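Exercise 7.
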Amino acid sequence: MVPKPKLKRLKCSSQKSQRDYDQQKYWNDRYEAKLKGKSVDEDDDHTDEWYFSYSDISDVLKSYLKQFHRHSPVLDIGCGLSNIFDELSNDYFTGPFIGIDYSSIAINQCNKINKNKNYHYFTLDMMQKQKPSLPINSFGLIIDKATTDGILCNKLHLSSISNMYEHASNFLSSNGLFVIITIKTVDDTEWFEDCLIPALIRGSQKQQTKFIIHFHRCMTYTDGTKNGPNIFVIIKYDCKSYSLRSSTNQTKQDLSQIVTVKCY
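Solution. The predicted structure, written as tokens, is:
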């Protein structure tokens, strides 16, 4: 049996990271160095699969996955050179699969080595205010695997990452899953209550949308060590029985009718 590769822990804090994970230039330099067989720095192991592989989280996701999700378009935000689409295909997801990243070096390499006509890669910056040219309400599964943590190694990017969540909410279909794998928790109110939740509501557009956020705390790494990242499974519903206010400046009492949070 082939052993699983050790997956990379992304070290983030309220301080700016030693590496510029939040900078587009860092990632272009990193991928360019990798393609030349070099390293950006001595400690850089050039992993392409951050945190968990799909097989590591499939047990958590299986209680949420339905046939609808397996036969809907899939979007990977900040895809880099990940092979998660191969894993999803092996688990009977049919796609199409869309990988986006703001690193043109990574996307060019993905398109160069890609042999699957069902995989599509585009250079897109989801942190821009202007909505990217992807179809709204169309993706049954959207994945953010360590992208949030890379960007928020510098907390100055909270406002720009809210654009990413707003776009993701806009692209997510009714009953779709938005999966965020991150070291962030529901206890980080500046991120969870003041950034993520308002962005989801802004992006939903419709006045009859509800979100259920399932928070799975502190998963275990493939090497058996604890203190792995957390998993958020966000489900978007169109509910005709709800009539929500048009303003996104809801009080917490208003939000309780729009967003339900369940912790495990």
